[in-house]
Specification:
single chain; alpha/beta; Rossmann fold; Barwin-like endoglucanases; 5 domains; eight-stranded antiparallel beta sheet; seven-stranded mixed beta sheet; about 20% strand; 4 iron, 4 sulfur cluster binding
């Protein structure tokens, strides 16, 4: 057994992990107690990382060798690395010669390491001579970058995690921190417990789990953040709560902003934002009069057509009140991905250059050209993410290189993205997982190493650089991303006839050393840092200049900002509504966001069945009143339609959702949610609907608001099939079922897991709906993939009525018979109890006839355990409610008793906000009566 310190590959908190391995296999993971980001804690995703690296997952999901398609649409064939890279270099060189360097584009990822990012940036801008390199961080953090630069002068979060201990007021806006950054939320809980006087304000259109800790909740209308912030500043000016001396000594531009916010009266703000005037006043008072106010914000501000304005307007509040540059205070943007910060540091976006230099600045271009030893860096602005795929769809960009990201799932306006991937003459996908939707469009697939196999560094939200270390060798022929890019670049140099040798790197450290030199004299100067220092002293924050022993904890404590005059700048940001307004035809505002236990397109988390326990299948969440008005019952299928497309989803009533709003998790792509339209066109996940409209400054798309209409669907024939499968076969069955989803108007296919009998088991769920019963051969295929085409399978069929049922029972070691697999076709009304019978592995020998009887009522003995709340210990809501009936005392005492009895919330803590809500939902009086 070996132990290797590394960093989690999920969100931007940057948690340290200790990887346990034996031989070539990762066997376990736990939090690193010495890492200053998490001190040993891990969330539900991080604590299951080892499961995503199992031999079974690797064998069935990983891309293990280079693959090339001779013809689009056909299966790719294995080739050698030399053949693959020579092919790629030849194709890219041909496009550059025939159409110019701007006919190629590179789309990379915030999950790449800093070293990977640096090489790709140099490859595009230094060798090819194009600025057409952008990243999925454009969808995540570009508005935060632009907001910081407009106001403070540099893309540098001024606060740190330790500021949570010093804050007297937390202003959380546009961030479901409890789910998106769970370990940071644990630190918020700690801060509140240590300082009960800490005031927490949460502004969000949804009543998320983060709201559970709030003293004040502002359920603003989508896209109205700028109006909220201006209204708060209006009141601060009226009440004399601004810091005139700080404004005079350290800022510029306040008079112009005052003129704008003068019109943002409490009446106007209350009407536009949809909140009471009293709550607006309370929020302004808490923010301005607190000794130290810390703002935490994320995609609710960033993913907007006014994203930069939202960021700047919030920072305006900090400058106006002097809430910056001191412990516990400052505007703190929470990074969405593990190394979005590192990508920004090396200039891995279309408008940036290394070390926070600006592409538009001739002096900055000259500095980078001199560092790289090239004649010049091109000045023409590059295509950003949305623009890049629009250009490829229009035939302007002819070759695409996509690394460590899945645009065929994650980009908005999927019709345009897929048209781009189909029209491009040559598409390279550099990827660890062969299962992503984008892989299907690739002419060339290059296998990349991933977590547990990679070497390099990442930077988290608080500017802290951590080492990423390999615990095992990459499987098959997979290589580190930076080394793939270097090998391609060296070949491309020869193909283009260049005599330069821009890529001499032999290790990740040699790449990083060049990046380090590029930061000399810049705001993020790390010339005093080295791999050796990271090994001996642990993760470090920047800046850390040559001669310094540690990095800077927080910035701007001296009131001097990285602007020409050293002053911060107020930005006059008029409020503008969302890009596409709700209208009569599209009366709902669709919001997208994260689930607690899933990550991005689920290429990694989607391999772990237990992570589907909390949210098992895709749904659209709606307000119960909206559902009642439209006569939509719980679980009914609805058409969710925008100007770009339509998908089908089950509807679910949710107390989180306001009137005329809807929410669908961002993770559901065609790998898990699919179907076909009446014309036969494939419906590909939630981003078939979302708008490509973006902020004119940051170019970040408005993924938090899309006008949609929601209409009840009439699909009378339904199907549900579930099966436990032998170890290692669930993922195989899931992949085989995925193409079948497109044969139905609606279909989902997801894994599930259970350890009801003390042993972890894996299964697959397939759900579909149609106007009429499908061809029997299609259902036969589904049965076969789920182990229902066996001699011992019980069957019932009524072709005239479109009814079909199958069930297979297996004798267990204790002599009882358990339901191993079932299919309900036509009438699925018995789903609840039959699915419970299977999931809970309850004795089923008495129910053979009922299993085959359409509409059969649930036996009294079959009781569902309910929805999983705690993924770590597989604790469901029914057990929690039952235990609460035996608890008494204060809410904190009841929570402690609950945790002591069931262990829920005692491992990763991700379920604690939900547990607290359940405790509060059961009043003490009711508990006393129950006792």
């Amino acid at each position: 057994m070996r132990e290797t310190k590394s960093t989690c590959p999920y969100c931007g908190v940057g948690c340290g992990v200790i990887i346990e391995s034996a031989g070539d296999q990762i066997t376990g993971v736990r939090g690193d107690p010495a890492h200053p980001a998490n001190f040993g804690r891990l969330c539900s995703k991080g604590s299951t990382l080892h499961l995503t690296a199992s031999a079974t997952v690797t064998r069935q999901t990983r891309l293990l060798q280079p693959m090339r398609r001779a013809v689009r649409g056909e299966a790719p064939m294995a080739v050698t690395w030399d053949t693959a890279l020579d092919n790629a270099a030849g194709k890219f060189a041909q496009v550059v010669r025939d159409h110019g360097p701007d006919a190629v584009g590179f789309y990379v990822s915030g999950q790449l390491l800093t070293e990977d990012y640096y090489v790709f940036n140099k490859l595009a801008k230094g060798l090819v001579g194009t600025n057409n390199i952008d990243t999925n961080s454009r969808l995540c953090m570009s508005s935060a970058v632009a907001g910081y630069k407009q106001t403070l002068g540099a893309d540098a979060p001024p606060a740190c995690y330790d500021d949570l201990k010093h804050a007297e007021c937390l202003f959380i806006v546009g961030s479901n921190t409890a789910w998106a950054h769970p370990i940071l939320f644990r630190r918020i809980e700690d801060a509140k417990a240590a300082n009960p006087a800490l005031k927490i304000v949460v502004a969000d259109p949804r009543r998320t789990d983060t709201v559970e800790i709030a003293d004040l909740f502002l359920p603003i209308q989508p896209g109205t953040d700028v109006m909220l912030f201006h209204g708060m500043l209006h009141l601060m000016l009226w009440e004399g709560w601004t810091n005139a001396s700080y404004i005079a000594a350290h800022t510029n531009g306040f008079d112009a902003l005052k003129a704008t916010v003068r019109d943002c009266t409490p009446d106007t703000v209350a009407q536009v934002c949809g909140i009471p005037k009293g709550d607006l006043l309370a929020a302004a008072r808490m923010f301005a009069t607190s000794p130290a106010t810390l703002s935490l914000y994320c995609q609710g501000l960033n993913q907007s057509s006014s994203g930069t304005a939202k960021n700047a307007a919030l920072i305006n509040l900090h400058l106006a009140t002097g809430q910056i540059g001191k412990p516990g205070a400052g505007p703190f943007s929470l990074t969405g991905q593990p190394n979005a910060m590192g990508g920004r540091e090396v200039g891995g976006l279309a408008n940036l250059l290394s070390a926070h230099r600006d592409l538009a600045n001739p002096a900055h271009r000259a500095e980078v050209a001199a560092l790289w030893g090239v004649p010049a860096v091109p000045e023409k602005p590059g295509k950003t993410a949305v623009e890049m795929f629009q250009a490829a769809a229009d035939g302007e960009i002819r070759a695409l290189w996509i690394a460590c990201t899945n645009p065929a799932q994650s980009m908005p306006d999927q019709a345009t993205v897929r048209r781009a991937l189909e029209r491009a003459e040559f598409v390279v996908v550099q990827e660890a997982f062969a299962t992503t939707a984008t892989c299907a469009f690739a002419d060339l697939l290059l296998p990349a190493a991933t977590w547990g196999e990679k070497e390099g560094t990442v930077t988290n939200s608080e500017r802290r650089i951590s080492r990423v270390r390999p615990a095992v060798a990459a499987p098959g022929e997979a290589r580190n991303d930076w080394s793939i890019a270097v090998a391609f670049a060296q070949r491309l140099e020869r193909q283009l006839g260049r005599t330069l040798t821009l890529f001499p790197y032999e290790s990740a450290e040699s790449v990083w050393n060049e990046h380090r030199e590029s930061t000399r004299g810049r705001d993020l100067d790390i010339t005093g840092l080295s791999y050796a220092m990271l090994e001996t002293a642990g993760p470090q924050q920047w800046p850390l200049k040559e001669g310094d022993s540690t990095g800077r904890v927080r910035l701007y404590e001296d009131g001097v900002f990285p602007t020409p005059d050293g002053r911060a700048r107020f930005v006059d940001t008029p409020y503008r509504p969302v890009a596409e307004a709700r209208e009569t035809r599209y009366p709902f505002s669709l919001n997208t966001g994260r689930l607690r236990d899933q990550w991005h397109g689920m290429s990694r988390t989607g391999t772990v069945g237990k992570l589907f326990g909390h949210v098992a299948e895709p749904v659209v969440q709606m307000n119960a009143q909206d559902m009642a008005r439209r006569q939509i019952a719980e679980g009914d299928l609805v058409h969710l339609t925008s100007k770009r497309g339509s998908i089908l989803l089950p509807a679910r009533a949710s107390a989180e959702i306001g009137l005329s709003q809807a929410f669908v998790a961002m993770h559901w792509g065609e790998e898990y949610l699919s179907g076909c339209s009446s014309t036969g066109a494939r419906l590909a996940g939630i981003n078939a609907l979302t708008t490509p409209a973006y902020c004119p400054t940051s170019k970040q798309p408005e993924l938090k608001h899309t006008p949609v209409k929601i209409l009840k669907a009439e699909l009378p024939w339904s199907l549900l099939a579930m099966a436990w499968l032998p170890a290692g076969e669930a993922l195989t069955a899931q992949r085989a079922l995925q193409p079948l989803m497109a044969l139905f108007p609606f279909a989902t296919c997801v894994p599930f897991a259970s350890n009801a009998q003390g042993e972890e088991r894996s299964g697959v769920l397939f759900r579909a709906a149609a106007h009429d019963a499908p061809d029997a051969a299609l259902v036969d295929t589904i049965e076969g993939l789920l182990g229902l085409q066996t001699a011992d399978t019980l069957r019932y069929a009524d072709r005239r009525r479109g009814q079909r049922r199958a069930a297979r029972l297996v004798r267990r070691a204790d002599g009882s018979a358990g339901l191993e697999a079932f299919l309900l076709g036509g009438d699925t009304s018995a789903e609840a109890w039959i699915a419970t019978l299977l999931r809970e592995e309850l004795p089923a020998q008495s129910y053979g006839r009922l299993l085959l009887s359409p509409g059969a009522r649930a036996p009294v003995a079959v009781q569902s355990r309910g929805k999983t709340v705690c993924a770590c210990f597989n604790v469901a809501d029914a057990a929690i409610q039952a235990e609460l009936g035996r608890c008494s005392g204060t809410p904190d005492e009841r929570l402690a008793a609950l945790q002591g009895a069931l262990k829920c919330g005692t491992n990763c803590g991700s379920c604690i906000p939900e547990l607290k809500r359940m405790v509060r939902a059961t009043p003490a009086e009711a508990l006393a009566v129950g006792a």
